[in-house]
Amino acid sequence: MKTLLAFLVFASFFSLQAEEPITFANLKSRIEDIPQVAWTNTHHLIKANRAASSSVLDLEILIGPNTKLYFEDNKKAFTDGMTLWANVKRPTKYIAFFYSFEDKAWAGQEYKKLPFYKPGMEILID
User: Fold this and answer.
1) At what angle do helices 34-52 and 74-84 cross, to 10 degrees?
2) Distance between alpha carbon 99 and the CA centroid of its chain, in Å?
3) Sequence-separated (6 or more) residues with CB below 8 Å from residue 12
4) Alpha-carbon span 123 to 126, nearest angstrom
5) Fewest beta carbons within 10 Å, which of 14, 49, 61, 119?
6) What is the pLDDT of residues 32-89, one digit of tens each?
7) What long-range pairs does 71-78 form, CB within 8 A, spacing at least 24?
8) How crowded is the C-beta side of 81, counted as CA atoms within 13 Å?
9) Is the pLDDT at 100 greater than 60, yes or no?
């Protein structure tokens, strides 16, 4: 069933391409269309994956106590990214850290609480 579902999403993704596909033969004349076609196809794929996927992934967003986010809709952005890759093997939980330099010590302490933490991994907080 997974193979069939992946094929259907893959097939629908390519059926959503521009009426005249961008090829190596027309690349120079269609180069300005590439960003829009990629954007449109990606959004169609997210929508198709959202409709076809029954899996629910856990997303935990940790924000430093002094950190001011410059983008407020991080949850949607992460959820869209996770949905885009719905047809590949993924972890069951995602954890996102947002912290400023002022919250670096906090981030190190929070990192040590994660279930996959091994001593020394806190050097990744930089």
Assistant:
1) 80
2) 19
3) 44, 48
4) 7
5) 119
6) 999 999 999 999 999 998 888 766 688 999 999 999 999 889 999 998 988 898 888 8
7) 74/98
8) 10
9) yes
